[in-house]
Amino acid sequence: MEIMPWKPFGELSSLRKEMDGLWDRFFGEKALARGFPEEWSPSVDISETEDSLLIKAELPGLEAKDVNVSLSGDLLTIKGEKKKEKEEKDEHHHYIERYAGTFQRSFRLPVEVQADKVEASFKKGVLKITLPKAEAAKKKSVEIKVK
């Protein structure tokens, strides 16, 4: 006889999966989960060149005036608000997936940057932030002398 670890919530987990499957069959593909989003977080790409860090954030449906970028020490914060569209008088919603509300993303920067030279631009729903590295953070090659 083998000793099996006791998993007190194992039975509840399988019951939950069965209930989720029942809801999926009744309402369609994860209708409830996608129908009522609690929060939205923009997708972000972070890359590094020899001289700077580059951050690109997808912010569809927003304008530059809806977004705020701040830098405090080594913490970069992007926050904003996506406004809810006004419902037309004769318009009745059957299904809502698009998020409206506030969002915030913060990133700890891996290197020191020149805060006074940070630039941000917004084009076609993409926020682009360029953070020039401080001189101390740039890679320096060391020449090896042959003796």
Give the key terms:
Immunoglobulin-like, alpha+beta, four-stranded antiparallel beta sheet, 16% helix, 147 residues, 2 helices, single chain
How would you explain this protein's 3D organization?
The chain is of the alpha+beta class and 147 residues long. The protein folds into two domains: 9-36, no CATH class; 39-84 and 98-137, Immunoglobulin-like (Sandwich), CATH 2.60.40. Helices cover 16% and strands 31% of the residues. The protein contains two helices and seven strands. The strands form two sheets. A four-stranded antiparallel β-sheet has the order 1-2-7-6, with no helix packed on it. A three-stranded antiparallel β-sheet has the order 3-4-5, with no helix packed on it. The radius of gyration is 24 Å and the shape is flat. It starts with 9 loop residues before the first helix and ends in a 15-residue tail after the last strand.
